[in-house]
Structure formats: structure tokens, C-alpha cells
Amino acid sequence: MRTYAGHSTAEASNQLYRTNLAKGQTGLSVAFDLPTQTGYDPDSTLARGEVGKVGVPIMHMGEMRKLFDQIPLTEMNTSMTINATAMWLLAMYQVAAEEQNPGMDPAEVAAKLAGTTQNDIIKEYLSRGTYVFPPEHSLRLISDMIAYTVHQIPKWNPINICSYHLQEAGATPVQEIAYSMCTAISVLDAVKASGQVSEEDFGKVVGRISFFVNAGVRFVEEMCKMRAFVELWDEITRERYGVEDPKMRRFRYGVQVNSLGLTEAQPENNVQRIVLEMLAVTLSKNARARAVQLPAWNEALGLPRPWDQQWSLRLQQVLAYESDLLEYGDLFDGSPVVEAKVAELVAGAKEEIDRVQAMGGAIAAVDSGYMKSELVSSHARRRAAIESGEEIIVGVNKFTTTEPSPLTADLDAAIMVADPRAEEAAKASLEAWKAERDEAAVSEALAALAAAAKTDANLMEATLAAARAGATTGEWAGTLREVFGEFRAPTGVSGAVGAAEAGAELAAVRDRVKATGEELGVKLRMLVGKPGLDGHSNGAEQVAVRARDAGFEVIYQGIRLTPEQIVAAAVAEDVHVVGLSILSGSHMSLVPSVVEGLREAGLGDVPVIVGGIVPESDAKALIGSGVAAVYTPKDFSLTEIMADIVEVVRKANGLA
């Protein structure tokens, strides 16, 4: 039983962890901030406004020690949501455990460590955006970690293949199963090809792979999806990899129930959604989750408070300790309805797996943009179904009348605000750390890391040496960037299929866009930008697709741009409107930088639109600073947003 937690500083997060453990939480799930996830130190230009916002900043061993102070790591089960820099964070975790147990042999300490590193980079290219290196080099880091942990940290799950984020990006159940299996195949093939694990030990590799799955509110379909996962994984590991031990073939998964379906409107409804989703992964004993973490009811509003996280923990505890759910065998064995649905999902997934494998596998399907475009298209279909009312969301597009809610009477108090001093504290910690360390030892360790990266050597030992020497997160990642290079994944927008047919509302917006363009003598151009390190690009992609459907010429360059790069693009493309998407909470730092940059570039008359998880008080402040409009998750109709935007453009250009 976990809650996904971490914010502001290592000290504050440590206090939160110890409080949650005292309340009955049985494992830790660490959220790292975006600079840590993408390999930047807090003094980097790209880290501006992002430090401590969506997780805890860990930029060196000193902060790792603080994070787990008074928490015995050899007795803990810790999940770390970390991908591109997973090897680095695992190394620091191992060194922190060694320091906690000075009288124990380091090998014995490693053997006692239990937990998971997410380490699924393929879904980062498709949905979450915290990748750093090109796919083939990222796969090398994953293979090295798997080989190392199988031999040295046998209780550790070195990779947690995540279908969760695929569903968040729009995946259907078939796509969710298929693309997860394709990822697993690419990883297992890479480990086998590396020659670091013997044939006799390969079953251990399969046995340590875990999955991280999304459970949506469509209860029957989601429950059947999990049974299909179990069936397909057993078949693939037996037939493709020859694993004979059924324990090693077991589909082991944890679940974070769906956040995509949480609503800002009538957010109290999120509680029953969360319970239904939890039941989908617990009722079916033969496909039951091993670990469950639940979002809080108010995550569509902002950062949950400790009380909100406690509520989610109590949901699990009531199910586990008050109900009789865990006392019986599988409730669905022999159900013809369930068997038929599972067979349908397995058949569809196999067909899609074959399609991806025919392209050369998951890495090739990332490079070509195929999987990304398929997800963007699926998400566009879902958005259109919600807007048309075909897919009903209670409180959003049906049953929208509501009594005043005491939960949201004071919206500013209904969420937690990350400590605004976190960035300065992190910079000060970094400066003090560098002043006290042995610079020669750090330089030597980083040089050894770079040299090893140019060979086929397993990089885990060189990474451990860098952690012990006192290197920082940014230095470790920067060293490998110089050897491996960086990567920008396809956005999926250009190949995505948007609205199959324009209803009356979209047709009217198209006419208005066209007429406005004719009055200005040029086609309307919209720049969609994602400033900062927030890689959750689903919203930005849907805005870009719908803007294109509405007749705008759309410029979308993907994630992880500085305000200066966005301003430069606006100047180069001579755009009529700039749309910024930010979900990391860094809007009050990054949006004003873009607005001011446009003014300085002579584009002060170009309106700026903002979309994301923006508290109402922040939205008012942004509009007061010159932003034309702010949209949040409650504004679910993209076509209505497009209609607003074209009127904003007309007003900015003095058109009646």
C-alpha cells in the first residue's frame, strides 16, 4: 500500500514519508522533480521554475541521505518513478543504504534491498516525456541495470514496464497491452543480446520484470484487460524465451488507478471513480495487483495535501481489512462474458504486437512515430466522444448542476502549494556540496564513466563510483549526453487523425478562422509551446490537432523548450497567437517569461493563451500580467476553446 509522494525538499519529503509509514503505509513510492528526472541540476537554465514542483529534487548524495533519514533501507520496499536517470538514482540509493549499515559488507547490503525503478524509457518517448538519450543508448542503460540487479540486487525490480502512461496518452486497452508487451520484448531481447546474463539465469531476468498498469473506470473492460495481460505474458515468456518455471512467468504488477478520468468539475465524484478502479485490479484473484497506489480526489485541482493522501490510503485499508474480498478464490472463473472479453483483447493485442514487430520492434516504432501517432489519434477520438456526449462524464458533460461543495469552498486551501523557496534551497545545497567535495575525485570518476560509455562495459559500476565520489545528477547525465547525444521524439501530431467529420460547431469555428484569415490577408498561425521540463504533452497534442482541424496553421515543436526558444519560434513563424501548456505547476515562473520575451521581441500584441492545472488565484494573476485566457481541465470542449481563441486573435488585431 503506497501513496506516490515527494515535493519541495528532501527534508520535507522525508517527514511526509515517515508520517505516511506511521499511518500504515507499507512501502514508499518516490516522486522526483523534473530536473532530477531529466538529468539537470537546479542551477541549470532548463530547471528554472521546476525545482521541487512535481516531486523531490535529488541532485547529489547529500540530498539522498536526507530523503531517507531514519528510514532503514534494508527493511523498506521502495518504488522510484525514475526513467532516464534511473541508473544514477539506484546507485545513490544503494550507496545511501551502505552508509546506513557501515558494519555490513556492501554486497550483503545490496542483497537486502527491495523495490523498483520504473526505468521504462519507451513509454517516455510515447507519453511522459522525461527521456534524455536516444532509444538505443537508453536501452543499453536499462540492459546494464537489469544484468547488474539480477546478479547483485536480486530482490530489486530493475524495470517497471508502464502501460499506465500509455492509457493517459489515449491508448485503448488493446494498445495498452500490445505496446507494453512490445516494450518488454525489446528489453528482453536487448538483455539477451548483451551476453551479460547466462541462459540459466535468464529466467531470473523475466522474473524480476514488473509492470505498472492503469485501471480506468470501465470496470469490466479493465478487469478483463488484466486477465488478458496475465495470459499473454505467460504465453510470450514461455514460447519466445523458453522460461519453464511458472513463478518466473507470473505477471507481477502494481497499479496506479486512472488519473486521466479525474475531473476538476464536481471533484468529489473522483472518490467513487477511484474505488471502482481499485476494485477492477483486486476483485479478480488470478490477475490481482501486488501493489496499489491511489491518486487523491483533488489531483485535477493541484498538489494533494497529506490529508488527501491519507483518504486514498484509507480506501485501500477498508477494502483489505474490513471487506471479505481477500478471503475467496477468483470470482470470475467460468464467466462466459469475461472469457469472451479476455479472448477479444488478447486477439487484438496479438495483432498489434505483430504489426509493431514487423516494423522492427518497439524502438523502430518509436523512431518512425507510428506508436505515438496511434496514441494521439486514439486520444483525439476519446476527446471527440466526450465533447459530443457519446462518452458521458458525470458532472462534466451530463448532470452538471451541483450543490456547493464544502470540499472546494476555499480552493486555495484545497490543494498544497510546493514551497516557493525550494529552488533557492536546492541551489544553495548544490553550491555547498560542490564546495566541500574532492573535485579531483569527481573529475576522475566522470572521466571513467565517459570512457566506459564508449565501450560495452556495464555502466553500473562506473555510476556507483561517481556517486561515491560526489558527482551530481546534472554531471552524471551531462557526461553521458556528451557520449550518447540527446534525442527529440516525434510528437505524433503530424500523422494523427483528428476529427473524422466536422459537426456544426466545428464547422462554424472553421468558417470564423477562414474569414479572419481573409480579413488579415494570411492564414491564421498558432504556436503551441511547452515551456520547461513538463513532458506530459497529451493536452498540448490534442490542442494542436484540434486547432489544425479548426483551420489554423499549427506550429508545434514538442516538449522541453525554454521561454527564449518559444519566443524565437513565435518571431520566426510570425504567429497570431501563442498557446502554452504547463501541468507541472511552474506556470507562474515560465508564462511571465514568455509574455515578457514577446514584448521585448516586438510581439507584445500577440496574445498568449495558457492551459494546464492552474489554480483560480494563479489564473487571475496570469490574466492580470497580460495573458489573454487561461483554460483548466474543466474546460473540456476543445472546439469551444478554438472558438474563443479566434475571437482573441480578432480582438488583438482590431477586428470587429
Automatic annotation (TrEMBL):
<keyword id="KW-0413">Isomerase</keyword>
<protein>
    <submittedName>
        <fullName>Protein meaA</fullName>
    </submittedName>
</protein>
<dbReference type="Pfam" id="PF02310">
    <property type="entry name" value="B12-binding"/>
</dbReference>
<dbReference type="InterPro" id="IPR036724">
    <property type="entry name" value="Cobalamin-bd_sf"/>
</dbReference>
<keyword id="KW-0846">Cobalamin</keyword>
<keyword id="KW-0479">Metal-binding</keyword>
<feature type="domain" description="B12-binding">
    <location>
        <begin position="523"/>
        <end position="652"/>
    </location>
</feature>
<comment type="subunit">
    <text>Heterodimer of an alpha and a beta chain.</text>
</comment>
<dbReference type="InterPro" id="IPR006159">
    <property type="entry name" value="Acid_CoA_mut_C"/>
</dbReference>
<dbReference type="InterPro" id="IPR016176">
    <property type="entry name" value="Cbl-dep_enz_cat"/>
</dbReference>
<comment type="similarity">
    <text>Belongs to the methylmalonyl-CoA mutase family.</text>
</comment>
<dbReference type="Pfam" id="PF01642">
    <property type="entry name" value="MM_CoA_mutase"/>
</dbReference>
<dbReference type="InterPro" id="IPR006099">
    <property type="entry name" value="MeMalonylCoA_mutase_a/b_cat"/>
</dbReference>
<dbReference type="InterPro" id="IPR006098">
    <property type="entry name" value="MMCoA_mutase_a_cat"/>
</dbReference>
<keyword id="KW-0170">Cobalt</keyword>
<dbReference type="InterPro" id="IPR006158">
    <property type="entry name" value="Cobalamin-bd"/>
</dbReference>
